[in-house]
Amino acid sequence: MSSRSRPSIAPVSGDPLGDIMRLVHELVGIELVDAKRPMVVARLGKRLRQLGLELAAYARLVRKDRQEQVALIDLMTTNHTAWWRESAHFTDLQKRLLPEVLSMAAARGQPPKLRIWCAAAATGEEPYSIALCIHKVMGQLPVLDAAVLATDISTQALAKARAGIYSEERVADLDPSDRTLALRSEGSAAQRRWVVRDEVRRLVQFARLNLIGEWSMRGPFDAIFCRNVMIYFDQATQARLVDRLLKLLRPGGSLYVGHAESLANIGIRLRQAGPSIHLAP
Q1: How many structural domains compose the chain?
Q2: Cβ count near 43 (within 10 Å)
Q3: 229-245 mean pLDDT
Q4: Residue 26's domain is classified under what CATH number?
Q5: Cβ(154)–Cβ(27) below 8 Å
Q6: The last residue of a domain, from among 45, 76, 107
Q7: Which residue has the higher pLDDT, 138 or 248?
């Protein structure tokens, strides 16, 4: 964790649950309001039983134990995702952004190069969907130099993403042709699982990253997908995050946010290429 993410070791107050919720905000920016207390209690229950600790003792432990902070973050982060979730963004990637990158490269007389950052990768369906879009183009244009950086704060989610193995249920909504192109099946019909093909997997590099911490990458990126994560941050944190994201985009690069997220709410107005698709100055 970065220096921004290192809480001071402070005594626990008379509200240990509130202390834990404030620690989560301090570490990763997630705003846990009082209405979320039942959810936090439910998510902590199994961990407390595993450790044999009461809530107050756990609050003292997690304040000073870095490894337990990682476990806490895994418990508190939401990793809901799906292949082609908010599919209009992937249509835009295929029909507008990729042709734009190819056209710019041709105008410069250079081989095409594409760099995309998926900032909240969860269990991998989103970055692999991006990679599948690219893979379809590379079948027609093998000289394309493409890479997808996929990051997340959750170690458990990243482990699943790196494995690239999905149940029948997780891929049920994929078009059969896309499923065949992106995945291969293993096991019997009763226990079938789907594994990301190497030609799609090799386009994606996974890394753990705290969005409110320090970033090692420099950019510029042609596109950044930062979708359905800012809704968990307060407005000040959202504004700081978007400002940092824009600085890593090339001029005219695309910032994809979730359909429920609005940059206007945090005082940032940019040209748009479509719903929840913002263009860097």
Answers
A1: 2
A2: 16
A3: 95
A4: 1.10.155.10
A5: no
A6: 76
A7: 248
Cβ atoms of 224 and 256 within 8 Å: the answer is yes
Structure token digits, residue 38? 């039942």
Alpha carbon distance 151, 153 (integer Å)? 7
Which DSSP category does 36 fall into? G
For residues 10 and 224, give the distance between their C-alpha atoms in angstroms, rounded to a whole number.
Answer: 37
Beta strand pairing status for 145-152 and 249-256?
unpaired
* Any domain includes 82: no
**What is the average per-residue pLDDT within 100-118?**
95
pLDDT the model gives residue 211: 98
Q: Using pLDDT thresholds of 50, 70 and 90, give the confidence band for residue 3.
A: very low
Residues 249 and 247: their CA atoms lie apart, in Å, by: 6
**pLDDT tops 90 at residue 15:** yes
Summarised one tens digit per residue, pLDDT across range 76-96 is 998 889 999 999 999 999 999
With beta carbons less than 8 A apart as the criterion, state whether 101 and 52 touch: no
> In the predicted model, what is the mean pLDDT of residues 163-177?
96
Exposed, middle or buried, 82 (CB in 10 Å: 0-12/13-18/19+)? middle
pLDDT at residue 29, as a whole number = 95
User: Do 123 and 30 share a structural domain?
Assistant: no
CA–CA gap between residue 40 and residue 273 (Å, rounded):
38
Do residues 62 and 101 share a domain? no
Give the catalytic positions in this structure: 43, 152
Q: Output the pTM of the full model.
A: 0.91
| Phi, psi for residue 212 in degrees, rounded to 5 | -100, 5
